[in-house]
Amino acid sequence: MKKEITNVDLCSIVNELKFLEGGRFDKAFLIDKDDNRELIIKIHKDGSNELVISVGKYKYVTLTSYEREKPKLPPSFAMLLRKYLKNAKLLRIDQVEFDRILLLEFSIGEKKYKIIAELFKDGNIIFLDEEDNIIAPLRVEVFSNRKIAPKEKYQFPPQKPLSLNKLEYSIAYEIFKDFFEKNKEVECVRLVSRILGIGGLYAEEICERANIDKKKKNLSEEEIKKLFLTAKELYEEVVRNRKPNIVIKDGEEVDVVPIELRKYKDYEKRYFNSFYEALDEYFAKFLTSVEIKKEKSKLEKEIEKQESILRRQLETLKAYEEEVRKNQIKGDLIYSNYQLVEEILNAIRVAKDKKGWEEVKRVIRENKEHPIIKLIEGVNEKKGEIIVRLSSDLDGKIEERVVLDIRKSTFENAESYYNKAKKFKSKIEGIKKAIEMSKKKLEELKKKRDVEIEEKKALKKKVKKERKWYEKFKWTVINNFLVIAGKDAITNEIIIKKYTDKDDIVFHADIQGAPFTVIKTNGREVDEETLMEVAKFSVSHSKAWKLGYGALDTYWVKPDQISKRAESGEYLKRGAFVIRGKRNYIRNVPLELGIGVLEYDNSIKITTAPPDTLKKHFIKYVLLKPSNKDKGKVVKELKEIFKEYDVDDEDILSVLPPGGCEIKRQ
């Protein structure tokens, strides 16, 4: 089973992922498992794309279409990337020197950052500044020639003089030939692997395509040239003529490769449009099978533990039932031999009182043939007990050794056994209930095992929701007017430049850092009620919400009053605009907001709105208030409230006001 990609594989993936260049960094997640770590970077380019970089036991890079269970509390490395790279532009994605090293370069403002993924040994992911100083590595490593640690200058590992992507250079063949001539006693497959820095799989492929025995030594110049040209052809195929496939042997997926390989010519294959799709499919299933084994092992241990408990309970039940039976029989035997037991007890009491226990034991020893004394099999003088063998023919032949207390009457001895039988009967009721509970728990565990394993087997592919243009922003619908608002400086600028028409009305809360809020009028008149509702929406989606304000002033202007041109001597930051002319203020606007679902644009959507709008036009809603409550918990509560409307985390998070919030009332 393939557990890591080769440098040839990485070359294929990087070529396919070039389309992500120019996209925007959204979020980073880190999934930390026992022997593996997956860094997931969300990049917005023609929709949301999840780039997966896996290090540890399994090393690969792919775009994934499968859902992964992300941690509720992101680890510090993921949070660090979010802090530095939020909305950063992905400038380039590259493979470094045809090695198993991936490079992602981002820019935000004037600053540049890099993420380096080393996909060899145990693997590592390193975050760098624009001068290649390490901001943070996923893990600290120390080598003989370099150190991976914060504040250290990052150095790439030593590179080989030749690689598959450099065979076009005029000097390449001379280096290749020289290496073979200096190592004539080494098998050619090893030489191909060493000089080109490729793994055995592709080195063997080159030998086979060149029709040269991989174990051959001391090659002729013609054979060396043939290997060189074959290596060039293989590289061209990897870059320009891929045929990605998963290789299947005996029903099991054993490899995933970007091109057809002769080694696998007789194997079953599944073909894909892209190599990253094939990798995603292969590793998603492979890692799921690993998780299933772990989960099965964990649940099997729980099942075994419960089976052991049940087994002990059943043994206890059997022992209790046996105690009931024995004590009942002994009580019955005393009653069926009442006269005999009475005589024995009286005789022993008299003998013991007159001559003591030693004389009693002597008499018993010396009268083994006596018809009554021979029934006494033992004496326990400390407890004042004798052991008598009693029998009965009432329900078939029954014979038992019965312990009699000489201080008690025959009736009391019988009752003592009956009472013991009653106590064990009482215990039997308790153990039977415990057994039923254990059986139920065992059944539930087995069912849980089967369900969880089936759930894990059924890999969930993400279904990309088709989002309308306005859903890139904060948005709502108030009295049939579409209202949009910026999320940050970038979306503020996009709204004004691209989505604001001359008849629209633009709001801006009177606080620094507030978004532009635009009423899309489509030439219609806007009444006072609508202006007031949009004013509430405007202030509620400003920084005032996060600061816990109760009310705030806001104003509205026409689009032609907004300019990107600063006055002489002024400087405008990104996303900032100049407002000229009269500002139409609405004073002391309360921060009131809720979230709900409404029917708009031929589908059910979730968004926020002021309370009066929610009451008039929304199907279902809850009111919100500013709070420091964990956003993840709030999203979970809202998903539960609106579960029948198929909303996900992203639907909710994208419309919530800045800062924290909590549900006020339903």
From TrEMBL:
Looking at the record, the residues that make up the NFACT RNA-binding domain are 477-581
The answer to keyword Cell membrane applying to this record is: no
Q: Which family does it belong to?
A: Belongs to the NEMF family.
> What keywords are annotated for this sequence in UniProt?
Coiled coil, Protein biosynthesis, RNA-binding, rRNA-binding, tRNA-binding
Keyword Protein biosynthesis listed? The answer is: yes
- State the name under which the record lists this protein: Archaeal Rqc2 homolog aRqcH
UniProt-listed Pfam families: NFACT-R_1, NFACT_N
User: What's a single GO BP term from this record?
Assistant: rescue of stalled ribosome
Named from the GO MF annotations, one term is: tRNA binding
Q: What are its GO cellular component terms?
A: cytoplasm; RQC complex
Q: What does this protein do?
A: Probably part of the ribosome quality control system (RQC). May mediate the addition of alanine residues (Ala tailing) to incompletely synthesized nascent chains from stalled ribosomes, leading to their degradation.
SUBUNIT field? Associates with stalled 50S ribosomal subunits.
The coiled-coil regions, if any, are 289-330, 428-462
The record's section on InterPro entries has: NFACT_RNA-bd, Ribosomal_uS13-like_H2TH, RQC_Subunit_NEMF, RqcH_archaeal
